[in-house]
Amino acid sequence: MNFNTFINCSLVGLALTTSVAAFSATTKQSKEVRAIIDKVNTYWQSNNAPEVRAFWDNAAYHTGNMEAYFLTGNDAYREYSEKWAEHNQWKGAKSNDRANWKYSYGESDDYVLFGDWQICFQTYADLYNILPDDKRIRRAREVMEYEMSTPKHDYWWWADGLYMVMPVMTKLHKITGNKQYLDKLYEYITYSDSIMFDPEENLYYRDGKYVYPKHKSANGKKDFWARGDGWVLAGLAKVLKDLPAEYEHRKFFEDRYRNMADAVVKSQRPEGYWSRSMLDEEHAPGYETSGTAFFTYGLLWGINNGYLNDPKYLDAAQKGWNYLKNVALQKDGRVGYVQPIGEKAIPGQVVDSKSTANFGVGAFLLAACEYVRFLEKESNEDRAYWVDLLYKMAAPVLSNMAEGNLQKNMIVEVSPNWDGRNKGVTYMETFGRLMAGIAPWLSLPDDETDEGMKRKQLRDWALKSYRNAVDPESPDYLLWRGHGQALVDAAYIAESFLRGYDALWVPLDDTTKSRYIEEFSQLRRVDPPYTNWLLFSSTIEGLLAKAGAQYDEYRVNSAIRKVEEWYTGDGWYADGPEFAFDYYSSYVFHPMYLETLQALKDSKAYTRIHYSNYYNRALRRAQKYSIVLERLISPEGTFPVFGRSIPYRMATMQPLALMAWYEKLPAGLTNGQVRSALTAVMHRMFDDKENFNEGGFLTIGFAGRQPNIADWYTNNGSLYMTSLSFLPLGLPATHPFWTDAQQPWTSQKAWSGQPFPKDHHWGETEKFKDLF
């Protein structure tokens, strides 16, 4: 070994040793934080019965308790919140006399419209999403929808109210689809800003009484109360978690969140806590936990979800956590230094290690759970399994095609009853279907993790492969012309661009983009049969519209009208005029219909069809169908094998994966149970079975090599449809889909005697007329 080789090997070995050591330290730390969560929550629940009123202080604790449940899967936590909800009849303030409902401060049952009585609805909504039952959100909807029917907009006149109620609005919107929740949320916070937001400091006064210069701190400074601003930053994080990406005022909430985070970081004390008067420590000196915990949670949430990328945020969050762990947490599990109930920083008020409160414990749990999500982002076993399996599937295809060698090196297999068409269609099927599945994952930002290195490698290969696919001089120029099958396979390439537009379409050079536009446009020569093929046309045209190219409005709108005619109910589409009992609702209808509509929305197309209305209706159908798919997964992790194209394997689960990636899972399907179910199916299908041939390419079969089940049009390129179930890899590793505890799926619950949601018919009442 020469000297340079020795040095290089030594450096690699040192890097690996350092990486392993860092990973080990992080794993140890995450276990420590999980133990703290259990210690703190067990102490609280052991010393406090759940049968207490639903006022804000108790309800704030339950927002942290439910976060701890989702992270750990500890049923005792969920049961504790359920007992509390049952005790309160799933209500806040209990008056039924709307004529006397009030929204000023009040602790009696007439103050139904006062936000401190509405925070309980957050937990009721969380419990509804676990086990849908109308009684769990009936009162929440009654109260909030009555409130929104009034002309008043001054419901949130104190900073605390923004945490109490803003997340209620987004949670109920997610459940009901009623956009009024979002519009009223924006209307109400705009009023709140007008009376208590300071645009110079990007912080909130507790309410109008404390606005500077009318009110000043002991040293004549602006007096921002830490817990008050903690409520707001945490509330904004919870809002962004559920706010639709396309909501027209989303940027307002993102900007407000980021600007507040900056202000919060600037005001942190060197010891890691935030003083009760944020800009004047001397006003009320000493430790304080509730504001610090809410700030730590709010910062960690932004770090975990890509909003706060500067190292200063992580430094502040870790300092905040170190204070919570080393100062606030007491040996017996008590959370100390919580300022008692109040509305301001009070000079001379005693706040010590014995000062604890329900809302402070809730805030502590929120921060601890979010810190675990951060610490475990590189050690999730389920995600690592998905990544390794998808990389194994993708690498032989993309590494070869990037060099123009796919058609030279791919070991092609075709159906025993192959119809004799040109086998060259295999390569376009392979590439397009694979890219449609991995596009969301490749769209994540680069990082230095093992997963990040694999993702970057695949993206680099993919971009080269995209260029070769349309370069007539490349050996891997695909078979775009001379046959009708190209319409099908081009649609999956178009779909990959729609799913990874910024990461995969935008970086392409102008020549390559022009070539794609030409190839996609010439496919109008293909007259699609009267089946799901209409959506292949519309998906291609949708991409052209999104990319600003000329598109065929008639091909889009006629496909939409036919798909509407073919909807049979409860999430199922017929494949043409006659219903076929197969999985084409999974393979094509739900995803490509939604993506066609979304692309036309993105392009701001104005035609006879109101694309947003159609999209919202199609989304609800996809949610119902995802419920059906999840229920088809047996307790053992299998699903029924029926219909044609069954060698597409996991593509059957595409709509369920799509709803998870969209963050639109319907009530009754939690992140933990859907991930667990899909992972179980992957293990059953791919582990210890002959799914790959000697070249590393997929074999024809369902769970292994089973060529007899192939259809006359099946080649092993067709089978890369299975990648379509990997869409949730497009969610970051810190997302609850990956970090929530494993949960039993519906069939497991049903067959083991556990409660599980009733199923029911999802009817439709929406009928849309042409706009002109």
Automatic annotation (TrEMBL):
Coiled coil location: none
Domain DUF2264: 382-745
Gene3D superfamilies named among the record's database cross-references: 1.50.10.10
Signal peptide residues on this chain, from the entry's feature table: 1-24
SUPFAM superfamilies: Six-hairpin glycosidases (SSF48208)
Gene Ontology biological-process entries: carbohydrate metabolic process
Keywords tagged on the record: Hydrolase, Signal
GO MF term set: hydrolase activity
Protein name, as recorded: DUF2264 domain-containing protein
Native species: Muribaculum gordoncarteri
